[in-house]
Specification:
four-stranded parallel β-sheet, globular
C-alpha cells in the first residue's frame, strides 16, 4: 500500500502525485473509514477529548473491519498511490493520521508492503 494524506481542499495535489483521492469524511466519504458526527462535533466543541476520540475511532474501525473485511482487504491490496483525506488542517489532530496507523498495522499483519509518504502540501 502506497499512501499519502491530504486535506480535502487540496485534492488537486493528488493529480500531481498520481494518487487516488479517497474521501474519509463523515460528510461525504467512504463510510467504512469515516468517524461519526458525534465524534467530530464532540471534538470540535470540546466535549470529546483527543484521547477519547482516538479510542472511539479505533473501536469504530475495528467494527468496520469486522463488518466489511473484504472491502478493507481489497482497499489495502489495491495498486497505485492513494491519498486519504478529510477537512482538518495539516499538522492538527485528525482521524486521517489515526487511519494511517491502522492501515500500517493491518498491512503488517496481512504481509502487505506499506509505505506512507506523508501529507501532500503545496
Amino acid at each position: 500500500m502506497d499512501l499519502f494524506t491530504v486535506q480535502v481542499g487540496r485534492w488537486r495535489l493528488c493529480q500531481k502525485h498520481k494518487a487516488e483521492f479517497v474521501d474519509t469524511t463523515v460528510k461525504s466519504g467512504l463510510k467504512i473509514f469515516a468517524p461519526t458526527w458525534d465524534m467530530v462535533l464532540g471534538y470540535k466543541d470540546g466535549s470529546v477529548s483527543e484521547e477519547e476520540y482516538r479510542k472511539r475511532y479505533r473501536q469504530l474501525m475495528i467494527e468496520s473491519w469486522c463488518a466489511h473485511r473484504e472491502q478493507w482487504k481489497e482497499f489495502l491490496r489495491s495498486e497505485g498511490y492513494k491519498a486519504i483525506s478529510c477537512y482538518c488542517k495539516p499538522g492538527e489532530f485528525c482521524h486521517r493520521l489515526l487511519l494511517v496507523d491502522i492501515f500500517r498495522e493491518l498491512c503488517e499483519k496481512l504481509k502487505i508492503p506499506f509505505n506512507y509518504y506523508g501529507e501532500l502540501e503545496p
